[in-house]
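Data card: per-record layout.
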Amino acid sequence: MRIHGVHRRTIWLEADGSVGIIDQNKLPFEPAEARLETPEEAAAAIADMRVRGAGLIGATAAYGMYLAVRRWAKARDDVTRKEAAALDSEIEAAADLLRSTRPTARNLGWAVDTMLARVRAADHTQNAVAVARACAVEIADSDASACRAIGRHGLPIIREIAERKAGEPVRVLTHCNAGRLAFVDYGSATAPVYAAYDSGISIAVWVDETR
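The structure for this 211-residue chain is written out next.
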């Protein structure tokens, strides 16, 4: 999405290894940001609906798992795989906490399980951090890529309708939380609408759900 003309995602890694989010509880009055340093803060962001929508919740859970591994590693200077049990305990606790925030959220559970599997396969502390970070980024990037693909596949349908309407707006009805803020970037069901707009197609959109 663009905020004041600058492209932004809804969640991102900061240079210091913390995680940045757009605080959706401040919208639409203030485009505020927040920083997550711990898995507890990631869980609170989900529970308090500072992040919303299936894709974004999943990405936040993935980053929350990364933050758990990062915190565990920062407390140790040189730890080998002999402390795998301690790491396993840390990430299990984070997983349970994150799952409890939205028990019915499918993206959340999938992201947590994916992170657990990847981290458990890591060799030692530093590698576990790198693996967790890479996996969380991969989950976020995959979400954004999938949404853009929806836009690419849906655009020809809207373009065909626009040609039949000979300049009249194409009317689209959307339902559920499927816009840019519900995912890491670009939106899901609304992605073809954004692609059509960017292509210069006249669009009229009805939204039948307040969020």
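Known properties of this structure: The mean pLDDT is 90. Residues 192 and 198 are 10 Å apart (CA to CA).

See the next section for split statistics.
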